[in-house]
Amino acid sequence: MKYNGFISKPPALFMLAVITIVAVLLFPAGHLLGKDRLASSFEEMINKERSAVDATRRDIRAYIADQPERISKINEKTRELNQQAFQLFVTYNMEEKNPVEMRDILRQMTIVRDQALSLVAPVKEQAKFIENLKKIVGTHVGEYERLATDTSMPGIHEAASQYVAELKETVGLLESAESIVEIIPNAVEQLLGRLEPRRAMLEDELKLAWKEYYLSSLDGLTLFSTDYWKAMAVVLGGWADFSTYWLIPYKASGSAIASALRGCAIASVAMLVVFLAIVMRLRRRYPSLSAARHFLPFCLYTALGLPLMIAGVTTVIPPLSTVTFLAEILLAGGLVSLGWNLRRLSADDRGTHKHNPLWQYWAIFAAGVLVQLFHFSAVAYSPLTAFLFIVAGAYSHILKRRDQHVLDKKQLVITAWLSYALAAGTLFGWGNLCVLAAVIWFAVMLNIQLAAGLTGCLRKIRSITDYGRTATGRLAEGAFFPMVFLGLFAVTILWVTLFIGGMPLVTRIIQWHLTIGYLSLNISMIVVIVAILFVTRSFVVIVNAIITFVATRMGMATGAGVLTSLHAISTYLIWCLYALLSLKLIGVGVAHLAIIAGGLSIGAGFGLQDMIKNVFSGLVLLFGRSLHPGDEIQLGDVRGTVMRINIRNTIVQTNDDSTIFIPNSDLIYKNIVNWTYRDPRGRAEIAVGIAYGSDTELAKSLLVQSALSHPGVLKEPEPYVLFWDFGDNALVFRLRFWIRRPVQTRDRISSAIRFEIDRVFKENKIEIAFPQQDIHIRSTEGLNPCLEPEKAPKA
Known about the structure:
Elements: H1 5-8, H2 12-26, H3 29-32, H4 35-94, H5 99-148, H6 154-183, H7 185-214, H8 226-246, H9 248-252, H10 254-285, H11 296-314, H12 323-346, H13 359-373, H14 378-401, H15 406-427, H16 431-464, H17 471-511, E1 513-516, E2 519-522, H18 523-553, H19 560-585, H20 590-624, E3 632-635, E4 638-645, E5 649-654, E6 659-663, H21 664-669, E7 673-674, E8 681-690, H22 696-708, E9 720-726, E10 731-740, H23 742-763, H24 784-787
Antiparallel strand pairs: 1-2, 3-4, 3-7, 4-5, 5-6, 8-10, 9-10
Helix pairs in contact: 2-4, 2-5, 4-5, 4-6, 4-7, 5-6, 5-7, 5-17, 7-17, 10-11, 11-12, 12-13, 12-16, 13-14, 13-16, 14-15, 15-16, 16-17, 17-18, 18-19, 19-20, 22-23
């Protein structure tokens, strides 16, 4: 505006004048400059200030002249806002305390309040600026009046006197402007005085309205009584009379609403074109994605609903806020289509996904929103709701009998019986509660379908690509998808809460708290702790991915066991920090932890000492790195491979394919053999005895050859043969060779080499000795009777 010139100018000239005046008054003029030169310089400075003050006075006069027109426009806008507020008051008084309609009225009242505040906000800022400027000019008037009384410098005296008169005139203009500006906000403040108490009362009522609306019946009326149908006739007549009044704000703002809807239509068309271009490009680039066309309904619903939602949330036209209800219906339909098609896309057999089990309850949800949007009474829409429940139950029962996926069958069974139950409840006067139950079940099924679709797509991507083995894939699976599921859950809870009570109910739930001793529990804190739980889980995956990247990509010589230990250490540290943070959030401080630790120490002295010992032993194993996952150990008669080191025990897989859980304290305080501590190689030995007289050099070369013929035997160090002993029945040799993972592979490799030794020895006529003993008989006196031939019997 043209009168804003003086408001936007900083009072820099006035500050310069004050500095000059102080200099003139504090220092004798003869000590600094000559009187004539000082007078001419000061007179020149005052003339410059006078020109600036003249411009300010012109701006103030223009500002004052423009105020009548401005006041007229503000009063006209205030009258419109008063009319809108009055219509909202009447509508609110005629409602049935429906939380959905109350939420809409509260939203429109908030828009009216914000518009009223936007009218008076610049006026109050200008009034404050005028007041400050008047104080500054008044201060300068006093300074120049002192200078005007000094007659020692006639030129300065006359200029200062004239300038004081001009400054006083400026102060008078500022006072006139201030008096005008002060009366401008009066009408708006009167409107706010009437509107704000009603809005605050509506917020308070909305916090508890859901109890009265959803948890109460229709005053004992049921659809089987004649009184109900008489009441319904009365209600429909009243609704017909009220609808004419309810449409007045829409008619009054018809052009603005039509313009906003045209903008939404243009945005919808643009979004739909973008979606179509993306789908067509995907089909051309990836011909295998023929199912991409099935996502067009989701694109259509989103293109129609998202602009309406944005327009309803950001609008300054109160009646236009009702389009958010239509946007909710469209966006919910888009999510229904998205979840179903994600499941079909990820299914191994798409023939089992024939019918979406959510559309019937989406229709009930849409009908419930629309009847409340059009201010239908529960008495009027209960027959329609009961009919929809019966149809949904019958339709779900029919779909259940067809060839459907097992998850869909379970949902359809629950949906069918729930629909019949809700239909019965509606017939007996509990229609509001039944609609709420239907909305909650619809939200639950929608989350199940979206989660199943996302999980199925992830599983299919992992099966046909190396996605699950890449760092990006692990990050997406461990960090991104849990946050997506958390977001779906949070949005569902928020959506249902807003449906039954709006933001005041959400605020009330968040502010609820329970204090037990030094513990302080509230809903918001619980939500934060759960959210941090998912964030912590994602952070664990990210940290482990960073450790793997640094170890593998930066040239660090670490094995798989070391990486696993580092992952375990980082995981335990992060979860410990999460536990400490969660305890802090609920009010458990360091002092309380010390008390708890003291109690645990007493308990450890009686029955927890073994557990505490195992926990600390696990920390020693993890940080000491004397044992890694993948190491092959022997503890007494137990030999196996370390699979995982937990905080309390260590999991060992034996050669018999059995799993043993060894307490960590046993690995710390007992003697264990780690066959692969520094080197994964281990030595194996096979003893062979050959008959005396065999070619020993040939036997040696054949033994080495047999060992090297097996791929599991290492070439370095080379196998060698020891001529171990002259046995009682054989020449004893020992074949020694090296293998990897000796505990796991020793028996298998040794057996294969023995088969090979037996084969090559047979081919080369080398006899493998076996135990034998020669008996030399020196005397046969005791055997003579047995050695004599039997005499023939006498005839």
